[in-house]
Design a protein that fits this description.
The chain is α/β, with parallel strands linked by helices and 248 residues long. It is 30% helix and 22% strand. A six-stranded parallel beta sheet has the order 3-2-1-4-5-12, sandwiched between helices. A six-stranded parallel beta sheet has the order 6-11-10-7-8-9. The longest helix is centred in the middle third of the chain and has 14 residues. The model has no long low-confidence stretch (mean pLDDT 96). Bound molecules: ligand 3Y8 and NADP nicotinamide-adenine-dinucleotide phosphate.
Length: 248
């Protein structure tokens, strides 16, 4: 029986996976949360918006005769990943996570790992700094207790009211380049970067730029997601599907 695939997207690797599935003529649907305006178009039929928790996802899988879910969401999209594990366990649908390895610091890096945004905010020194807060929009409130610092924010869409008084906003979607991120850090005289350990190529240039400029990085470690089958590259996920195709 040909697999009918739900691809949970929102990352660069998900877009690569979508291209491989489309080229293979796979029966697949791409899913965005609807977090941004006009997300990147995909070469697959695309649905946008939440499913309505585990129950909603179970209903979607059954109503659409999904046989395989590939969870290519971001490592910090932990709720979606937990829901996919639960819904696939309930329905018997096969699940594979397409998850890129975490970034690891090299000898020339100056990282301090933090377990939460609150810890990152508490870790900031007393004197006012110029900070590239490269965590997106959803977690900015954690830094409202540190209004003395200047925050450079890179956001996909223009935000509403911000919980931070001293900010400069750069609206950009990524993936980013080293040249761009070096210029950004220099132009705004950045002294420290706060980032999520997202892994992957799309968000990595800011870390390369920090290394070259010898800037410290506060690196947020990933949330823990329960055990599931994982592949690091879209090509391995395609092999998993072909194996599934033969019913192995
Ligand atoms: C909506 C889809 C592709 C996908 C590109 C990757 C790379 C560029 C790096 C910085 C850090 C950040 C943020 C980031 C990156 C890629 C990838 C990645 C980080 C889009 C996208 C969606 C989102 C959601 C958005 C979050 C935000 C996070 C910005 C599309 C562009 C900071 C995460 O305004 C908001 O509410 C934004 C929310 C979740 C984190 C946050 O909490 O605010 N991503 N990002 C997906 C959906 O609706 O399902 O709009 O086209 C996808 C990408 N973002 O195909 O090339 O693969 O990681 N995205 C982080 O990793 O730190 C930017 O500026 O250096
Ligand atoms: P999250 O906190 O794990 O999920 C919150 C809820 O959003 C989920 O329970 C689900 O709603 C819905 N959702 C999330 N991803 C979805 C998808 N791909 N398709 C349909 N519904 C989805 O998710 P998040 O961290 O807000 O991330 C949202 C999207 O942005 C994901 O596609 C993720 O890959 C992408 N992204 C996130 C980050 C990040 O830093 N978090 C970075 C880059 C890209 P229901 O419960 O109603 O089903």
């Amino acid at each position: 029986m040909n697999p009918r695939i739900l691809l949970l997207g929102g990352t660069y690797e998900a877009s690569r996976m979508a291209r491989l599935l489309a080229e293979a003529g796979a029966d697949a649907v791409f899913s965005y949360a609807g977090r941004t305006d006009a997300p990147i178009a995909q070469p697959l039929p695309t649905r946008i918006g939440g499913f309505g928790g585990v129950e909603g996802l179970v209903g979607y899988l059954q109503a659409n005769n999904i046989t395989h879910v590939i969870d290519a969401t971001h490592p910090f999209a932990a709720q979606m990943s937990r829901n996919a594990i639960a819904a696939c366990a309930q329905t018997g649908v096969r699940l594979l996570a397409l998850e890129r390895p975490a970034w690891v610091p090299g000898p020339a890096d100056n990282w301090r790992e933090v377990a939460s945004l609150e810890q990152a905010a508490a870790t900031l020194p007393a004197e006012a700094l110029r900070i590239f807060l490269a965590i997106g929009r959803q977690g900015l409130g954690s830094f409202a207790c540190r209004p003395e610092h200047f925050y450079l924010l890179r956001l996909v869409n223009a935000p509403g009211a911000l919980p931070l008084p001293r900010t400069e906003i750069v609206q950009a979607r990524g993936p980013f380049t080293l040249e761009n991120d070096l210029a950004l850090l220099r132009q705004h005289r950045i002294e420290i970067i706060v980032a999520k350990n997202s892994g992957g190529a799309g968000g990595a240039p800011k870390l390369e730029a920090a290394r070259l400029l010898r800037l410290p990085v506060l690196m947020l470690t990933r949330p823990v997601i329960p055990a599931r089958d994982v592949a690091a590259e879209p090509e391995a996920a395609m092999a998993w599907l072909h194996g599934a195709d033969r019913g192995v």
